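User: What would this chain look like folded?
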Amino acid sequence: MASQDHTSHRAQGDELRRFIRQILHRVGLPASDADTVGSLMAEADLQGSDGHGVIRLPQYVQRIESGGINRHPDIRVVQERAAMAVVDGDNGMGHLVVSRAVRLAIDKAREAGVAWVGTRHSNHAGPASLYARMPLAHDMIGLYFAVGNANHLPPWGGMDMLLSTNPIAAGIPAGDEPPVVLDMATTVAAYGKVKAKAKRGEPMPEGWMVDRQGRPLTDPNRAHEGFLMPIGGHKGYGLALIVGLLAGTLQGAAMGREVVDFNADHVTPTNTGQAILVIDLAAFGGAAPFKSAVDTLVRDIRGGERLPGVERIWLPGEQSHGKREAYEREGAPLPDALLQDLDRLAERLGVEPLRRAQPEPVGA
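Assistant: Here's the prediction, encoded as structure tokens.
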């Protein structure tokens, strides 16, 4: 049975950015930092990553007001060589820490050909694809890894939740085609999608979570009673472990039992770890031939023979690319329950509520 649509309003990108910026500035972030975070959070909604955009704002505000996030961090490089660095985020907003790391990696890759920059003492930073995409504007490849901000995954065959969704993302430049952008959790679904389902009043599909007896769990409001499932069974568990070691342990960030559940604990610093690997196409024969080859491969894949009933073969990132184009014009859809939360937050902080417009009727 098709799920019921609980979205009744849309918000334009400029309005989302304004609203988030004003809320964050009101709770103590400097204006420039609030602007950076607001732009990245709005971009998440505009690309359809609705589990990591403005839906996270009340949670961020609670952590900031509870002292769990440093309003004025000294984000600095603490280890560095020609093609690597470690950035200490001083418990600042993750969007600030990671975007700083990506900019540094781009600069280093321009000189060294490749660069790895990791973070420690960071925080939740939104969807992985935001950061894997940043090098694309410089004709560079971005590979991004992160430790999730709560453990929702046990080792394969175990019960102790020692691992998180630990996402990985890749941004691959193309020529005339949209870039190939992969953004995936190492679990069947990211926990942000569970939160989004709960906010929309929708059930989860079977296969996302199981309870502690191994039975399917489909009520997102009961997510605390079970755990997420890894992609590909034991292979997904192994991938989550490796991503966590690279994004967390390597930089001295939290991993395993050290991971703080920022959904339940709004005070303890999370010491979140992320890492970005940037590859400059100029060091591998130039951007033009690579991007042309990507275009050819994309067209071969899309134009290949399809199974019966398959209307289109999609490339990673194509649907988000389409959503971004549509939402920039029409606004990002937001569920009623989220808008009510945001209205209450705006009223408490004395900020103008988020303006919204009714979406176009289906078929209009």
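The longest strand covers residues 114-120. If you want, I can go into more detail on any region.
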